[in-house]
Amino acid sequence: MKEKSTEKKPESPNQAVVIGTSAGGLRALKELIIQIPKDFPLPVLVVRHISPDATGNILLDALNKLDTINCMHAINGEGLKPGNLYFAPSDHHLLIGKGHKMLVTKGAHENRSRPAIDPLFRSAAVEFGSGAIGVLLTGYLDDGTSGMKAIKKCGGVCIVQDPNEAEYPDMPRNALNNVRVDYCLPIADMGTLLTKLVSRKLPKRKKIPEEILIEAKIADRVLSDLNSVDKLGDQVPFNCPGCGGVLWKVGKDSNLRFRCHTGHAYTAAFLLAEQTNKIEETMWTALRMFEEHKNLLTEMARRKKGVGSQSALERVKMSQVHIDRIRAILKTNENESGNDMPT
Q: Is 185 in the same domain as 56?
Protein backbone atom coordinates (compact mmCIF):
# COMPACT_ATOMS: atom_id res chain seq x y z
CA MET A 1 0.00 0.00 0.00
CA LYS A 2 1.18 3.48 -0.80
CA GLU A 3 1.64 5.73 2.17
CA LYS A 4 -0.49 8.83 2.21
CA SER A 5 1.51 11.97 1.83
CA THR A 6 1.62 14.06 4.99
CA GLU A 7 2.80 17.11 3.11
CA LYS A 8 0.28 19.93 3.39
CA LYS A 9 -0.87 21.68 0.27
CA PRO A 10 -0.15 25.39 0.36
CA GLU A 11 -3.19 27.34 1.47
CA SER A 12 -4.82 29.66 -1.00
CA PRO A 13 -4.09 33.28 -0.04
CA ASN A 14 -6.95 35.24 1.48
CA GLN A 15 -5.67 38.49 -0.01
CA ALA A 16 -4.66 39.65 -3.46
CA VAL A 17 -3.32 42.86 -5.00
CA VAL A 18 -4.92 44.07 -8.23
CA ILE A 19 -3.35 46.92 -10.21
CA GLY A 20 -4.80 48.94 -13.08
CA THR A 21 -3.21 51.50 -15.36
CA SER A 22 -3.46 52.96 -18.84
CA ALA A 23 -1.53 55.80 -20.54
CA GLY A 24 1.86 56.23 -18.87
CA GLY A 25 1.53 52.80 -17.30
CA LEU A 26 4.76 51.32 -18.63
CA ARG A 27 6.92 53.65 -16.56
CA ALA A 28 4.57 53.61 -13.56
CA LEU A 29 4.47 49.82 -13.37
CA LYS A 30 8.24 49.54 -13.56
CA GLU A 31 8.57 51.99 -10.69
CA LEU A 32 6.05 50.11 -8.57
CA ILE A 33 6.95 46.50 -9.34
CA ILE A 34 10.67 46.89 -8.60
CA GLN A 35 9.56 47.61 -5.01
CA ILE A 36 7.80 44.23 -4.67
CA PRO A 37 10.23 41.52 -3.47
CA LYS A 38 10.48 37.94 -4.70
CA ASP A 39 9.06 36.59 -1.44
CA PHE A 40 5.98 38.82 -1.49
CA PRO A 41 3.35 36.64 0.20
CA LEU A 42 0.39 37.59 -2.03
CA PRO A 43 -0.48 37.17 -5.70
CA VAL A 44 -0.53 40.36 -7.77
CA LEU A 45 -2.64 40.81 -10.91
CA VAL A 46 -2.16 43.65 -13.40
CA VAL A 47 -4.27 45.12 -16.18
CA ARG A 48 -2.67 47.68 -18.46
CA HIS A 49 -4.56 49.02 -21.44
CA ILE A 50 -2.68 47.78 -24.50
CA SER A 51 -3.61 47.42 -28.16
CA PRO A 52 -4.92 44.02 -29.33
CA ASP A 53 -1.79 43.29 -31.38
CA ALA A 54 0.67 44.11 -28.57
CA THR A 55 2.41 41.30 -26.71
CA GLY A 56 3.35 43.10 -23.51
CA ASN A 57 6.71 41.32 -23.58
CA ILE A 58 8.78 44.53 -23.39
CA LEU A 59 7.65 45.24 -19.83
CA LEU A 60 7.69 41.56 -18.86
CA ASP A 61 11.25 41.00 -20.10
CA ALA A 62 12.50 44.17 -18.41
CA LEU A 63 10.98 43.22 -15.06
CA ASN A 64 12.20 39.63 -15.10
CA LYS A 65 15.79 40.88 -15.40
CA LEU A 66 15.41 42.56 -12.02
CA ASP A 67 15.55 41.03 -8.55
CA THR A 68 11.82 41.41 -8.01
CA ILE A 69 8.57 39.44 -7.88
CA ASN A 70 8.22 36.72 -10.53
CA CYS A 71 6.29 38.23 -13.49
CA MET A 72 4.37 36.31 -16.16
CA HIS A 73 1.32 36.40 -18.40
CA ALA A 74 -1.84 35.03 -16.82
CA ILE A 75 -3.03 31.61 -18.01
CA ASN A 76 -6.69 30.68 -17.97
CA GLY A 77 -7.62 28.19 -15.26
CA GLU A 78 -4.39 28.41 -13.26
CA GLY A 79 -4.58 29.06 -9.54
CA LEU A 80 -3.12 32.17 -7.96
CA LYS A 81 0.20 31.69 -6.18
CA PRO A 82 1.88 34.03 -3.70
CA GLY A 83 5.01 35.70 -5.00
CA ASN A 84 3.77 35.76 -8.60
CA LEU A 85 2.64 38.73 -10.63
CA TYR A 86 0.24 38.05 -13.49
CA PHE A 87 -0.29 40.36 -16.47
CA ALA A 88 -3.50 40.35 -18.49
CA PRO A 89 -2.68 39.21 -22.06
CA SER A 90 -3.56 41.59 -24.87
CA ASP A 91 -7.16 41.50 -26.14
CA HIS A 92 -8.28 39.44 -23.11
CA HIS A 93 -9.89 40.34 -19.81
CA LEU A 94 -8.24 39.01 -16.66
CA LEU A 95 -10.62 37.99 -13.88
CA ILE A 96 -10.46 36.04 -10.64
CA GLY A 97 -12.89 33.15 -10.57
CA LYS A 98 -14.08 30.67 -7.98
CA GLY A 99 -11.34 28.91 -6.06
CA HIS A 100 -9.07 31.88 -6.79
CA LYS A 101 -8.39 30.65 -10.30
CA MET A 102 -7.58 33.04 -13.10
CA LEU A 103 -10.02 33.54 -15.92
CA VAL A 104 -8.55 34.86 -19.17
CA THR A 105 -11.58 35.64 -21.30
CA LYS A 106 -12.71 37.22 -24.57
CA GLY A 107 -15.66 38.92 -22.92
CA ALA A 108 -17.21 42.13 -24.23
CA HIS A 109 -15.13 45.31 -24.11
CA GLU A 110 -15.61 47.54 -21.09
CA ASN A 111 -14.77 51.22 -21.42
CA ARG A 112 -13.58 50.51 -24.97
CA SER A 113 -10.86 48.23 -23.60
CA ARG A 114 -9.99 44.56 -23.41
CA PRO A 115 -8.32 44.03 -21.05
CA ALA A 116 -10.21 46.50 -18.87
CA ILE A 117 -9.53 47.43 -15.27
CA ASP A 118 -13.06 47.40 -13.83
CA PRO A 119 -13.75 43.68 -14.49
CA LEU A 120 -10.55 42.63 -12.69
CA PHE A 121 -11.20 44.89 -9.71
CA ARG A 122 -14.83 43.77 -9.50
CA SER A 123 -13.90 40.09 -9.58
CA ALA A 124 -11.28 40.65 -6.85
CA ALA A 125 -13.93 42.33 -4.70
CA VAL A 126 -16.27 39.35 -5.13
CA GLU A 127 -13.66 36.63 -4.53
CA PHE A 128 -11.54 38.24 -1.81
CA GLY A 129 -13.92 40.72 -0.16
CA SER A 130 -12.01 42.60 2.53
CA GLY A 131 -8.82 40.88 1.31
CA ALA A 132 -8.84 42.72 -2.00
CA ILE A 133 -6.23 45.48 -2.37
CA GLY A 134 -6.81 47.71 -5.40
CA VAL A 135 -4.14 50.01 -6.84
CA LEU A 136 -5.00 52.55 -9.54
CA LEU A 137 -2.24 54.33 -11.46
CA THR A 138 -1.87 56.82 -14.30
CA GLY A 139 -4.27 56.85 -17.25
CA TYR A 140 -6.87 58.69 -19.34
CA LEU A 141 -10.58 58.99 -18.48
CA ASP A 142 -12.06 56.83 -15.71
CA ASP A 143 -11.65 53.08 -16.15
CA GLY A 144 -11.00 51.65 -12.67
CA THR A 145 -13.31 53.98 -10.74
CA SER A 146 -16.26 51.58 -10.78
CA GLY A 147 -13.98 48.68 -9.85
CA MET A 148 -12.50 50.68 -6.98
CA LYS A 149 -16.01 51.42 -5.76
CA ALA A 150 -16.78 47.67 -5.77
CA ILE A 151 -13.63 46.91 -3.75
CA LYS A 152 -14.57 49.60 -1.24
CA LYS A 153 -18.16 48.34 -0.89
CA CYS A 154 -16.84 44.83 -0.22
CA GLY A 155 -14.49 46.02 2.53
CA GLY A 156 -11.21 45.99 0.61
CA VAL A 157 -8.44 48.59 0.46
CA CYS A 158 -8.25 51.26 -2.25
CA ILE A 159 -4.91 52.86 -3.17
CA VAL A 160 -4.59 55.63 -5.75
CA GLN A 161 -1.51 57.26 -7.23
CA ASP A 162 -1.20 60.93 -6.34
CA PRO A 163 -2.61 62.69 -9.44
CA ASN A 164 -0.05 65.47 -9.04
CA GLU A 165 2.74 63.05 -9.96
CA ALA A 166 0.82 60.89 -12.45
CA GLU A 167 1.88 61.26 -16.07
CA TYR A 168 -1.83 61.19 -16.98
CA PRO A 169 -3.88 62.13 -13.89
CA ASP A 170 -7.42 61.44 -15.16
CA MET A 171 -7.86 57.92 -13.76
CA PRO A 172 -6.48 58.64 -10.27
CA ARG A 173 -8.39 61.92 -10.07
CA ASN A 174 -11.70 60.36 -11.12
CA ALA A 175 -11.31 57.66 -8.49
CA LEU A 176 -10.58 60.27 -5.82
CA ASN A 177 -13.65 62.25 -6.87
CA ASN A 178 -15.99 59.26 -6.69
CA VAL A 179 -14.59 56.83 -4.12
CA ARG A 180 -13.51 57.32 -0.53
CA VAL A 181 -10.08 55.80 -1.12
CA ASP A 182 -7.90 54.64 1.75
CA TYR A 183 -4.57 55.94 0.47
CA CYS A 184 -3.46 58.52 -2.09
CA LEU A 185 0.32 58.63 -2.37
CA PRO A 186 3.27 58.67 -4.78
CA ILE A 187 4.30 55.39 -6.39
CA ALA A 188 7.62 55.52 -4.53
CA ASP A 189 5.74 54.93 -1.25
CA MET A 190 3.46 52.14 -2.45
CA GLY A 191 5.88 49.23 -1.99
CA THR A 192 6.26 49.94 1.72
CA LEU A 193 2.50 50.31 2.10
CA LEU A 194 1.76 47.01 0.36
CA THR A 195 4.23 45.22 2.63
CA LYS A 196 2.45 46.65 5.68
CA LEU A 197 -0.99 45.70 4.40
CA VAL A 198 0.04 42.06 4.00
CA SER A 199 0.06 41.55 7.78
CA ARG A 200 -3.10 43.53 8.55
CA LYS A 201 -5.95 41.87 10.38
CA LEU A 202 -8.75 41.47 7.90
CA PRO A 203 -12.12 42.89 8.90
CA LYS A 204 -15.16 40.62 8.84
CA ARG A 205 -16.17 39.80 5.29
CA LYS A 206 -19.10 41.89 4.11
CA LYS A 207 -22.04 40.62 2.11
CA ILE A 208 -21.38 41.25 -1.56
CA PRO A 209 -23.98 43.65 -3.00
CA GLU A 210 -26.21 42.02 -5.62
CA GLU A 211 -25.34 44.52 -8.35
CA ILE A 212 -21.61 43.74 -8.00
CA LEU A 213 -22.30 40.01 -8.21
CA ILE A 214 -24.40 40.50 -11.36
CA GLU A 215 -21.75 42.60 -13.09
CA ALA A 216 -19.02 40.14 -12.14
CA LYS A 217 -21.05 37.29 -13.66
CA ILE A 218 -21.70 39.27 -16.83
CA ALA A 219 -17.95 39.84 -17.25
CA ASP A 220 -17.40 36.11 -16.72
CA ARG A 221 -19.98 35.48 -19.49
CA VAL A 222 -22.13 33.52 -17.04
CA LEU A 223 -25.01 35.95 -17.51
CA SER A 224 -26.12 37.77 -20.61
CA ASP A 225 -29.84 38.39 -20.40
CA LEU A 226 -32.33 41.22 -20.12
CA ASN A 227 -33.60 40.30 -16.66
CA SER A 228 -30.11 40.50 -15.16
CA VAL A 229 -29.36 43.92 -16.62
CA ASP A 230 -32.85 45.14 -15.66
CA LYS A 231 -31.85 44.62 -12.02
CA LEU A 232 -28.93 47.02 -12.47
CA GLY A 233 -30.89 50.06 -13.64
CA ASP A 234 -33.25 51.58 -16.19
CA GLN A 235 -33.13 51.62 -19.96
CA VAL A 236 -31.99 54.86 -21.55
CA PRO A 237 -32.50 56.23 -25.09
CA PHE A 238 -28.93 55.47 -26.17
CA ASN A 239 -27.57 52.62 -28.23
CA CYS A 240 -24.49 50.59 -27.43
CA PRO A 241 -21.63 51.66 -29.75
CA GLY A 242 -20.25 48.12 -29.57
CA CYS A 243 -23.28 46.13 -30.73
CA GLY A 244 -26.11 48.59 -31.37
CA GLY A 245 -28.26 47.20 -28.55
CA VAL A 246 -30.18 49.11 -25.91
CA LEU A 247 -28.24 50.54 -22.97
CA TRP A 248 -29.17 50.56 -19.28
CA LYS A 249 -28.02 53.21 -16.83
CA VAL A 250 -26.27 51.40 -13.98
CA GLY A 251 -26.62 52.67 -10.42
CA LYS A 252 -28.06 55.88 -9.10
CA ASP A 253 -24.99 57.83 -8.01
CA SER A 254 -23.28 60.70 -9.80
CA ASN A 255 -20.77 58.41 -11.52
CA LEU A 256 -22.83 57.59 -14.63
CA ARG A 257 -22.29 54.16 -16.15
CA PHE A 258 -24.08 52.23 -18.88
CA ARG A 259 -24.39 48.56 -19.89
CA CYS A 260 -25.97 46.56 -22.68
CA HIS A 261 -27.25 43.01 -22.13
CA THR A 262 -24.44 41.47 -24.19
CA GLY A 263 -21.80 42.75 -21.76
CA HIS A 264 -20.41 46.00 -23.19
CA ALA A 265 -20.01 48.62 -20.47
CA TYR A 266 -19.14 52.31 -20.49
CA THR A 267 -18.71 55.15 -18.08
CA ALA A 268 -20.27 58.39 -19.31
CA ALA A 269 -16.84 59.66 -20.39
CA PHE A 270 -16.06 56.54 -22.43
CA LEU A 271 -19.55 56.45 -23.96
CA LEU A 272 -19.20 60.07 -25.05
CA ALA A 273 -15.77 59.36 -26.55
CA GLU A 274 -17.12 56.32 -28.41
CA GLN A 275 -20.12 58.26 -29.72
CA THR A 276 -17.76 61.00 -30.89
CA ASN A 277 -15.69 58.44 -32.80
CA LYS A 278 -18.82 56.99 -34.44
CA ILE A 279 -19.99 60.46 -35.46
CA GLU A 280 -16.58 61.21 -36.97
CA GLU A 281 -16.62 57.93 -38.92
CA THR A 282 -20.07 58.81 -40.27
CA MET A 283 -18.93 62.31 -41.24
CA TRP A 284 -15.93 60.96 -43.17
CA THR A 285 -18.21 58.53 -44.99
CA ALA A 286 -20.61 61.37 -45.83
CA LEU A 287 -17.70 63.51 -47.07
CA ARG A 288 -16.50 60.74 -49.37
CA MET A 289 -20.00 60.18 -50.75
CA PHE A 290 -20.60 63.91 -51.41
CA GLU A 291 -17.22 64.21 -53.17
CA GLU A 292 -18.01 61.19 -55.34
CA HIS A 293 -21.45 62.68 -56.04
CA LYS A 294 -19.87 66.00 -57.07
CA ASN A 295 -17.33 64.28 -59.30
CA LEU A 296 -20.04 62.31 -61.09
CA LEU A 297 -22.15 65.43 -61.60
CA THR A 298 -19.13 67.30 -62.95
CA GLU A 299 -18.49 64.55 -65.48
CA MET A 300 -22.15 64.58 -66.49
CA ALA A 301 -22.08 68.39 -66.95
CA ARG A 302 -19.13 68.08 -69.33
CA ARG A 303 -21.05 65.67 -71.57
CA LYS A 304 -24.34 67.56 -71.56
CA LYS A 305 -25.33 70.77 -73.29
CA GLY A 306 -27.75 73.59 -72.49
CA VAL A 307 -30.27 73.15 -69.66
CA GLY A 308 -29.02 69.69 -68.68
CA SER A 309 -25.48 70.96 -68.24
CA GLN A 310 -26.64 73.98 -66.23
CA SER A 311 -28.73 71.78 -63.92
CA ALA A 312 -25.80 69.45 -63.25
CA LEU A 313 -23.51 72.40 -62.48
CA GLU A 314 -26.05 73.79 -59.99
CA ARG A 315 -26.09 70.41 -58.23
CA VAL A 316 -22.27 70.42 -58.24
CA LYS A 317 -22.34 73.75 -56.39
CA MET A 318 -24.79 72.38 -53.79
CA SER A 319 -22.63 69.32 -53.26
CA GLN A 320 -19.63 71.59 -52.68
CA VAL A 321 -21.62 73.51 -50.04
CA HIS A 322 -22.25 70.24 -48.16
CA ILE A 323 -18.59 69.21 -48.58
CA ASP A 324 -17.39 72.52 -47.11
CA ARG A 325 -19.75 72.21 -44.15
CA ILE A 326 -18.66 68.65 -43.36
CA ARG A 327 -14.98 69.60 -43.64
CA ALA A 328 -15.57 72.52 -41.25
CA ILE A 329 -17.17 70.15 -38.71
CA LEU A 330 -14.34 67.63 -39.02
CA LYS A 331 -11.76 70.38 -38.59
CA THR A 332 -13.54 71.57 -35.43
CA ASN A 333 -13.63 68.02 -34.07
CA GLU A 334 -9.92 67.62 -34.81
CA ASN A 335 -9.09 70.75 -32.81
CA GLU A 336 -11.21 69.54 -29.87
CA SER A 337 -9.93 65.94 -29.79
CA GLY A 338 -6.92 66.53 -27.57
CA ASN A 339 -8.64 65.00 -24.53
CA ASP A 340 -9.64 61.73 -26.19
CA MET A 341 -8.01 58.56 -24.97
CA PRO A 342 -5.38 57.30 -27.42
CA THR A 343 -5.74 53.81 -28.80
A: yes
Give the whole-angstrom CA distance, residue 174 versus residue 138: 11
The structural domain count of the chain equals 3
Q: Is 123 a catalytic residue?
A: no
Instruction: Give domain status of residue 213, yes or no.
Output: no
pLDDT single digits (tens) 220-237: 775 556 677 777 888 898
Q: Give catalytic status of residue 92 as yes or no.
A: no
Same domain, 251 and 192: no
- Residue span of the structural domain in which 251 resides: 224-263
The most confident of 105-109, 128-132, 261-265, 286-290, by mean pLDDT: 128-132
Which tens digit of pLDDT belongs to each residue from 271-284? 988 888 888 888 88
Among the candidates 244, 263, 282, a domain finishes at 263
Give the percent of the chain with pLDDT over 90.
48
260-273: string of b/e by CB count within 10 Å (b at 16+)?
bbbbbbbbebbbeb
Selected catalytic residue, list 142, 143, 170, 220: 143
Please tell me the pTM assigned to this model.
0.80
Answer whether residue 257 shows pLDDT above 50. Answer: yes
Last residue of a domain, one of 198, 232, 250: 198
Residue 53 is a catalytic residue: no
Domain presence at residue 208? no
Does residue 117 sit in the same domain as residue 64?
yes
**Catalytic-labelled residue, pool 49, 93, 109, 261:** 49
